[in-house]
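Progress against Task 2.4 (sequence-to-structure conversion) is shown through the following example record, which the project officer requested during the mid-term review.
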Amino acid sequence: MEKKDTTLVVPAFRLCKELTLLMTGWEHAMIRLKEAQNLVPANYSNLELDFQEAWRESKRNAIMIGGEIRKAKQNIEEVKSDIILDEIPKVLVDLPKSANNADFRRAIMNRNEEYKGSVQHLDKLDAMLEHFESHMKIMENTSRFLKKQMDYIIRNGRG
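Structure tokens generated for the chain above:
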């Protein structure tokens, strides 16, 4: 049976290119997580290798998403500039000078679909980064648990 790669695809948006994030190592580690509860010394190195690979995969994904977060912030700034330079002056023509305040400018931006889409894309990337950072923490904790279990087994002669 051939093992297929599990991926997560993040669609392209303005300056942000499409990302294909590999999730195969994480999926494999999650399947083996139960084995960590009943550690047998013969399985230790293999389990540790799988959990470390899942950590590295999650770290790579987090780094890639971090790069796209920077681009997403640039997207927002570009859209914001377009709104401030192009849209707001047109709306202000018919309004009194007192209407040109921060709340008014923010209201115009929040009605702009491209701005809302850019902010939503950044929010999704931020959530994904948090998700992959939690993957890394799970693998770190599992590795730490495995090491403690092996120390216990070695000290007590079990295994």
